[in-house]
Amino acid sequence: MKHQITDMQAQKKFPSRLSIFLDGKYFCGVSEEIAVKYQLKKGIQIDEEQLEALIYDDELLKAKNYVYMLLSKRMYSAKEIQDKLKIQGYTDGIIKDVISKMEDYGYINDRTFAEEWVRSRINNKPKGISIIRRELKNKGIEEETIENALNETMGEITQHNLALELARKRIKSYKNDDNMSTKRKLYAYLIRHGFSYDIIRSVMNKVMRERQSENL
Predict the structure, then answer these.
(1) Which of 48, 83, 88, 163 is least surrounded by Cβ atoms within 10 Å, i.e. has the fewest?
(2) Bridge partners of 30?
């Protein structure tokens, strides 16, 4: 069944979008880009298949623009983008196509995202491997990708140095505690930050020796 476009009007609230009227009645709004792509103009005939296609492409374009806006602020994993688009009400088909296109463009890359996340945890908000691993898993990163990112950017020495830096800062707040209390609090603090027992033990031995030397 074919319909006639009886009017096209620029929307007052969104001037870059056009209201399409079919057979004298409002049908939908589309972007100017979609109107040009489908060569829409007053008086032409358009069938149901074309209408479905232009509506889909218009939704796809809106979703892409939304993702561009998100990515202009920070990197996102594919799952984060998927969750954001679901909240906005986009269909599974639109979400799948948008993520696929963004991955093709290189704008979404879980491997790069994981590596940058690990680096940020080294340079800005130090965390141990167990917490970083859990954070990345919650963001939908595959286990193999997580392990590769950790192996490439965060070795044993790096973990030890991060834990040591945190411990040296934290122990200053325990200056009025005895050694037993200090060890208990410091251990709990480093565990919460995701460091392993071996690293914690090594770091605690070092900072406690430093503390004793300062008190001589």
Answers:
(1) 48
(2) 18
CATH code of 157-214, in short, is 1.10.10.10
Contact present, 141 and 77 (Cβ < 8 Å): yes
Examine the pLDDT at 157 and tell me if it is beyond 80: no
The string of pLDDT tens digits covering residues 11-27 is: 998 889 999 999 999 99
Q: pTM of the entire structure?
A: 0.78
**Does the domain at residues 2-105 carry the CATH identifier 1.10.10.10?**
yes
φ, ψ of residue 57 to 5 degrees: the values are -65, -35
Domain 110-154 matching CATH 1.10.10.10: the answer reads yes
DSSP letters spanning 8-31? EEE-SS-TTEEEEEETTEEEEEEE
